[in-house]
Design brief:
Distance between the termini of chain A: 92 Å
Strand order of the largest sheet of chain B: 1-2
Radius of gyration of chain A: 39 Å
Oligomer: heterodimer
Number of helices of chain B: 21
Shape of chain A: elongated
Strand order of the largest sheet of chain A: 1-2
Chain lengths: 784, 514
């Protein structure tokens, strides 16, 4: 119940937020912060029960006929993420109340979208249905798109972020549907309990598709580039979506699917490989960025990789550590982003080369930023230290190939060394050292600075009281691996391997920081041959170029472009039919008489004449002759009234065509020989197939049932002696009515086109039209 | 019941005649269109209700014996399509009125004839009559296409009519061959006729002809070429009606004549997949709102015929759910594009921009149906697409299901292309220039009195008028979200229709008057 109420309230608040902002301006954010705090409290209240092994769940029907259900379930993993979403959400809302200027017109939109996002994100982490998870997943992507893009100022970043996550999201949808079809249910908890699914033949495909979703969303290499690009968004958005929560949705999915795939080699190796590559690359790039938001964004990329790899280790200890590190990262990274937002706000820049010595002007921010940087670097007594220690322990005990543990531990430590270095660089170059000339710093309002201070101190307090987190960390491990590692978190475990690794990190990080001048010089010389943005843009432009080529044929003004495919498909059907043994083509003539062949021969001759004709009149005459031949054929077959109709139609047609040709040149314009040949081939093939079809399919059965009925009944029923007439006006009068309508509309249409030619002035009438009309009028005069 | 069955035919046709007679009274014409279309929606609704539990109603036109008369039959599938297409037509006509596109004496009569052909195509159970109703539809659509005189329209009209006449010729040839082989064109007598290879080939010719009308790849080129040249409201009208009739006829043909023969499944899946892909790629490459949307119609036809290849209850239900919501979604997108064109005078992305700032209602009116088209949850488009993908995977048709997913992505990409080009960013010159109160340039050139008939005053696009223009697409946009949340309704409506297609015995019995 709690879950449903919180979610419903979230979506309702999202709809109301713009109106609230109109009433209260930016202070509406305080109200939203209060609501978020209430949600956090409500979720936390459910915490003890959840950690005691009784997940909270709720279910509402959605589309039962399609097995879509609004089923929610919060276990320890869901609780951890839900608390991060609502808790950091509270901070970000409170922060937003002073981040935006009073009267900023975008406040309503941003607050509404942020609330929408928060609700979707909350739904995502408590969804107990694969498709519901996807629905919320897409909602977070959509709200992220509009939050990054604003009114269009962040267009490129928003587009890249959205399209990259959409590719992954759709892959994930395919994976979910595949998994659901395989499991015959879409209920997540039921699927996770079905271990047989991991060895199903579909499993590798599902794994690849799900990883595509997780890796794009959580910015793993090579999809990481969208995350730094999303930094054009206002800082509250970067803090909330692109540091603390949304980018962790992919990590959440990895956590969530671990019970099923945690033991599968493909899953583990992918996670370790992509995760560690991302951790290293992100950290190294962060080390050279001078834009603080870009530095932090790459730091986020690195930490997401670290988490991915940690989940890939797959042991209960690793999952517990990953849960803890997720929390630690959310706290310190939110703090760091909010601090950067304040710095940007008060100094007008967030470029390291223009900053320095801010500790004196912004002591509160320096304290918050410093604490967070310590946590990020993994220094006791902050939470980041504890989580990193546990992570090192997990990496060092990675099961599988004996060479694996040393390898992954080394890589993780290396990434952490670089993390230490960029943390130090961030703090030092922002808050310490001399202030550059011309740097003007406004005093930050207390309420503004208070928020990052709270989250920073939160990281400190939790670090000091870390044993309190035992049940949560163990609960996450239990929920994802089925085993309670019985972890006892503490700042001091005695001289252990992880402690030694931490010492290596500090020493190495300090060395790297001390040598920062040389490191930066080295990094300045290295240019990556491919960039994510560049590759993305090339693919995007390539897709559009391909699309242009695919759409090209449909821009032609030549009718042949459109008619040929139709004939081609018909010919293909005819060819396939001829080659189809089941058709049993019978070569004997079914119903024929001697004169038929005479008519056919004459028809062939006259058609050749049509094709050969150089003048329009000759062509029309020859075409008319074929019509008369058909009429003659009707007579031979004993259908004089049909023949009469055919004769009338043919005469009228010829007369009309000749009338219409009056204004056209006497002779056809010359056609290139290849085109003529092509036309001949097409005509002969189509004609031959149509003829064959007629020959094979007609005249080979007795009188049809309706035919027999007409012969015996028609006259009596209608009083009409001519069956064709009775069919036209009685039995199938509806068809006749339809055809009359067609003729009537055709007349009206021609009338309209002719009238409009006269009526509309301007562009519709070209000079040529006017000249032609003049000519017509002149010839009219002459005739009179 | 029989009166109700034929009403969708004679009511709009009668309306067309009266509207033509009332050509001096513009408002009377408008009222007639609104009345007949609303009545058609209502009749469709009654038919939907009357076809509960798989009930099928039939009437033999003229009271002639079964097998001689042309039967009109309403099952759930036909009833749903009548209702939906009537609604789509109503929206398009209201939009045409708002932007003054109906300022031609023939507009309303032609709409009447067009929907007559459409509704009759849904109802008839006689293949020759289907040919006739197709012709009725074609000729009305041709004239509507060229009502807006101009070189481009004439050229597009020529391509449109030539292509469709060739298709009609093929249709007629197929009919003759089928009759020659089987001795009837009555659907009631044609069940499983295609088990005979000769009849299968003959019906194949008909299927190809219908495939042109439905714009299956590679028979699709005429559609993106011609549709964009019509007036915006007319494009919206066409999008809701014409290709859908083709898709409907393919379903009927496959259900009855081919009796769902599984040996054609692979061919149908390939055609569906290629149609989806080619259509969406063509859309991605275009730089004009309506051109993008027109190519999407091709792509969506691929989704619509996918169920033919799946031919399972889940698949066909999914297809019908998708079809019903898609008719509304695509109509709304064309209306949104038409609104942009109406106020700015252009639909080219390069000349537009920033309309989210100047016309937020229009922007949202585009955005919501665009998300539905791309299948973004929680819109109705998502439910339809999910059901289709699921049905594909359930039938182990992994490739075509995968294609459907890939095409979703490109759909999203092209919708974002429009969004980025038209609505985001700084207002372009064309957008800033439209101060909100300009006469329609098309209209301004027309004289006030033609042939003694006083013409309605030119439409002036005041801000409330522009808001009203955005309203239809906005309403559909909101409806797609509501339908997404309440998709159960769609599924329960569609499932009996799908069951009736998979097992057409009730339909056949009704046609045979038993």
């Amino acid at each position: 119940m709690t879950l449903l109420v919180v979610l419903a309230a979230g979506f309702a608040l999202a709809a109301l937020a713009p109106a609230l902002a109109r009433l209260a301006g930016r202070d509406a954010a305080w109200l939203l912060a209060a609501a978020f705090a209430a949600a956090t409290a409500a979720l936390a209240a459910a915490g003890p029960g959840v950690l005691a092994g009784e997940p909270v769940s709720a279910e509402l029907a959605w589309v039962p006929a399609a097995d879509l259900a609004l089923s929610l379930r919060m276990d320890a993993l869901g609780l951890l993420f839900a608390l991060i979403v609502s808790g950091i959400g509270t901070a970000v809302m409170a922060y937003s109340a002073r981040y935006f200027h009073a009267g900023d017109p975008q406040v309503g939109r941003v607050l509404g979208l942020l609330t929408l996002f928060a609700s979707a994100m909350l739904g995502l982490v408590v969804a107990d249905d694969l498709l519901l998870l996807f629905v919320f997943w897409e909602l977070t992507s959509v709200s992220s798109f509009f939050l990054i893009g604003g009114l269009g100022e962040g267009k490129p970043g928003a587009t890249r972020a959205f399209l990259v996550t959409a590719v992954g999201g759709l892959a994930m949808l395919a994976g979910f549907v595949l998994l659901g079809v395989d499991a015959q249910t879409f209920t997540l908890s039921a699927i996770l309990a079905d271990a047989a699914l991991a060895s199903s033949p579909l499993a590798p495909a599902v794994i690849v598709l799900l990883l595509a979703g997780a890796f794009t969303k959580s910015a793993q290499v090579p999809f990481h580039f969208w995350l730094p690009g999303a930094m054009v968004a206002p800082t509250p958005i970067s803090t909330y979506l692109h540091a603390a929560t949304m980018v962790k949705a992919g990590v959440y999915l990895l956590f969530r699917m671990t019970p099923l795939y945690g033991e599968v080699a493909l899953w583990r190796s992918s996670l370790l490989a992509f995760g560690l590559a991302t951790a290293l690359l992100g950290a190294v790039v962060a080390l050279k960025k001078t834009d603080l938001k870009a530095l932090l964004a790459y730091g986020t990329v690195s930490q997401l990789g670290f988490l991915t790899a940690l989940i890939g280790v797959g042991t209960p200890l690793a999952l517990a550590a990953a849960g803890l590190h997720t929390l630690a990262h959310a706290l310190y990274k939110a703090t760091l982003f909010m601090s950067v937002g304040i710095i940007d706000h008060e100094t007008g820049t967030r470029d390291l080369t223009e900053l320095g010595g801010l500790r004196r002007a912004l002591p509160g921010v320096a304290l918050a930023g410093g604490l967070a940087a310590l946590s990020m670097a993994g220094i006791p007594p902050l939470l980041g230290f504890v989580s990193k220690e546990e992570a090192f322990a997990a990496f060092a005990a990675a099961p599988g190939d004996p060479a694996l543990a040393p390898l992954v531990a080394t890589l993780a430590v290396t990434a952490s060394v670089v993390t230490f270095a960029y943390s130090a660089r961030y703090y030092w170059r922002t808050f310490e050292g001399p202030a550059p000339e011309g740097l003007h710093v406004h005093a930050a309002p207390g309420a503004f600075v208070a928020v990052p201070l709270v989250t920073a101190v939160g990281g400190l307090v939790v670090g000091l009281a870390v044993p309190l987190l035992d049940p949560l960390a163990n609960g996450v491990a239990l929920a994802t691996t089925g085993v309670d590692p019985g972890l006892h978190l503490a700042l001091w475990h005695g001289p252990t391997v992880p402690l030694a690794l931490s010492a290596v990190v500090v020493a190495g990080g300090l060395a790297l920081f001390a040598a920062r001048g040389r490191v930066e010089a080295l990094q300045g010389r290295v240019r990556l041959p491919v960039t994510g943005d560049g590759s993305f843009d090339r693919l995007y432009d390539g897709a559009i170029a391909l699309g242009k080529r695919v759409g090209e044929p449909a821009t032609s003004s030549r009718p042949a472009t459109y008619l040929l495919p139709i004939l081609g498909v018909l010919v293909a059907l005819g060819g396939a039919a001829v080659a189809w043994p089941e058709l049993g083509i019978d070569g004997s003539a079914a119903l024929s008489q001697g004169p038929d062949w005479v008519v056919i021969a004459l028809l062939a001759v006259s058609l050749v004449k049509v094709a050969q004709a150089r003048s329009r009149l000759a062509a029309v005459a020859a075409l008319g002759f074929t019509g008369f031949l058909v009429a003659a054929w009707f007579v031979l077959l004993g259908a004089p009234d049909l023949a009469l109709t055919q004769l009338l139609v043919e005469t009228l047609t010829v007369a009309l065509v000749v009338f219409a040709f009056r204004r056209l040149p006497l002779r056809f314009s010359p056609t290139p020989v290849p085109r003529q040949l092509g036309a001949v081939v097409i005509a002969v093939v189509v004609g031959a197939l149509a003829g064959t079809a007629t020959f094979v399919l007609t005249g080979r059965r007795g009188l049809s049932e309706p035919g027999a009925w007409y012969l015996t009944e028609a006259a009596g029923q209608t009083g009409g002696g001519n069956i064709v007439n009775t069919i036209l006006v009685d039995f199938r009068a509806l068809d006749t009515l339809g055809e009359i309508t067609v003729l009537g509309v055709a007349v009206a249409g021609i009338f309209a086109v002719l009238r409009l030619g006269v009526r509309v002035e301007g562009e519709a009438l070209t000079a040529r039209d006017v000249a032609e009309t003049g000519e017509a009028a002149a010839s009219e005069e002459r005739r009179r | 019941m029989s009166g109700l069955l034929t009403a969708p035919f004679w009511l709009p046709l009668l309306g067309a005649v009266v509207a033509l007679l009332a050509r001096r009274h513009y408002h009377v014409q408008q009222a007639i269109s609104l009345l007949t279309l609303s009545a058609s929606v209502a009749i469709g609704g009654v038919l939907v209700a009357e076809t509960a539990d798989g009930a099928v109603h039939a009437t033999q036109i003229g009271g002639w014996p079964v097998g001689i008369a042309i039967p009109f039959v309403a099952d759930r599938f036909a009833a749903l399509l009548i209702t939906t297409t009537a609604l789509a037509a109503l929206l398009a006509v209201v939009f045409a009125m708002l932007r003054g596109e109906d300022h031609h004496v023939q507009f309303h009569p032609l709409v009447g004839v067009l929907v007559t052909g459409v509704f009759a195509s849904f109802l008839t159970a006689d293949l020759f009559n289907l040919f006739v109703t197709f012709e009725v539809m074609l000729i009305a659509s041709y004239v509507l296409l060229t009502l807006r005189a101009g070189r481009a329209q004439e050229r597009a009209g020529a391509i449109y009519i030539m292509t469709n006449l060739l298709a009609s010729t093929a249709f007629l040839l197929g009919l003759a061959l089928l009759y020659g082989r089987v001795g009837t064109v009555n659907l009631g007598e044609l069940h499983a006729a295609a088990a005979d290879p000769g009849a299968a080939v003959a019906a194949g010719v008909i299927a190809i002809a219908i495939g042109v009308k439905a714009s299956l790849v590679p028979l699709h080129g005429w559609l993106p070429r011609a549709y964009v040249c019509a007036g915006p409201a007319v494009t919206a009208l066409f999008s809701g009606l014409l290709t859908k009739v083709g898709v409907y006829a393919l379903f009927r043909l496959y259900s009855v004549v081919y009796a769902g023969e599984p040996r054609w499944s692979l061919l149908l899946l390939v055609v569906a997949g290629i149609t989806m892909l080619v259509g969406v790629l063509g859309a991605v490459g275009k730089g004009d709102m309506r051109a993008i949307l027109a190519f999407h119609m091709v792509s969506q036809v691929g989704y619509l015929v996918l169920p033919l290849g799946l031919w399972s209850l889940a698949g066909v239900t999914a297809g019908i759910v998708y079809l019903l919501q898609y008719i509304a979604v695509k109509g709304a997108l064309f209306l949104a594009a038409g609104t942009v064109e109406t106020v700015t005078g252009t639909g080219r992305l390069a000349e537009l921009g920033g309309m989210l700032r100047t016309r937020p209602a229009v922007a949202i009116g585009f955005l919501l149906p665009a998300l539905a088209l791309a299948g973004v949850p929680p819109t109705s488009g998502f439910v339809g697409k999910f059901m289709l993908i699921r049905a594909s995977f359930e039938g182990a048709h992994y490739v075509v299901g995968g294609v459907a997913v890939v095409v979703s992505f490109f759909t999203l990409m092209s919708m974002m292309k429009i969004w980025n080009g038209v609505f985001w960013g700084e207002p372009s010159a064309a957008v800033s220039a439209e101060a909100g109160t300009e006469g329609d340039p098309d209209r301004a050139r027309l004289p006030r009195v033609v042939d003694g008939i006083p013409q309605p005053p030119p439409v002036v696009f005041t801000p409330p008028r522009v808001r009203a223009l955005a309203l239809p697409s906005l309403a559909v946009g909101v409806a797609t979200i509501l339908l997404g949340l309440g998709a159960q309704l769609l599924v329960t409506l569609a499932e009996p229709a799908a069951a009736g297609l998979l097992d057409p015995s009730a339909y056949l019995e009704a046609v045979r008057g038993r």
